Amino acid sequence: MFGDYRYVWQTVKEHFGIVAVLDIALVAVAIYYVLRLLQGTRAVQLIKGLAILGALIVLTGSLHLVTCNWLLKLALLPGVIALLILFQPELRLALEQIGRGSLFGVGLTALHREQITHLVDEVVRGVRQLARDRSGALIAVEREVGLNDVIQTGRRMDSLVSADLLRTIFYPGTPLHDLATVIRGDRIVAAGCLLPLTERRDVRGMLGTRHRAALGLSETTDAVVIVVSEETGGISLAVDGRLYGNLTPDLLRQRLLGILTPAPKRRRLRLRRRRDAA
Fold it and tell me: pLDDT tens digit string along 242-259?
């Protein structure tokens, strides 16, 4: 047994010198920085898919599943090409961050239940006032998929979410009232942002620009988008590619809490059998 350990140690010393260790460390640091640069963007989801695909290629290769391995390898190249084509904005943003020297981005904020409740209350209070005044509004709440590419199109902010601040941003006549405001965690991170419009033909003639933008962002990300109609004062909510209209402030609060509040962790109950007395 000890002879095997000595053989392994001797092999490691022969093949893994200082240069090899330095090489591995540099590659690990490069991968780490690339992941940090792409954090908060939609490209992360595709990278996860490519990672799973790579793991399946290794698994099928080790199990000698020749056909499956060949098909998976054929699918890998289109995935890499799709990463380069579909996520050009994220890659451009990453290169810009390298040029500015800002390699470390700000991670997504994880909120507790009390903070989420306070956030929802402030948003709903602001939306209630905006709907009453018939001031159009478009508010995107970031979830798991980052919105850095959307934030890049607007004006950066770093302010706690409050109903008064939302009313100020969307007050008619202000420079930022026509575009979208992005919320990350409990802070407004940007205003005056451009959102992608939905490509669905069945809603083009039925919805205004704000509603189409809200629907478009909810189709490409998991963001929750709130819309206040400037014409009617109606409140709508877009999530997962669906648009829910004619919401009251109370119903909006209920739905936002249901979407944004994390599900409680269920405690595992251990059932013990009782032995009957002999």
Answer: 999 999 999 999 999 999
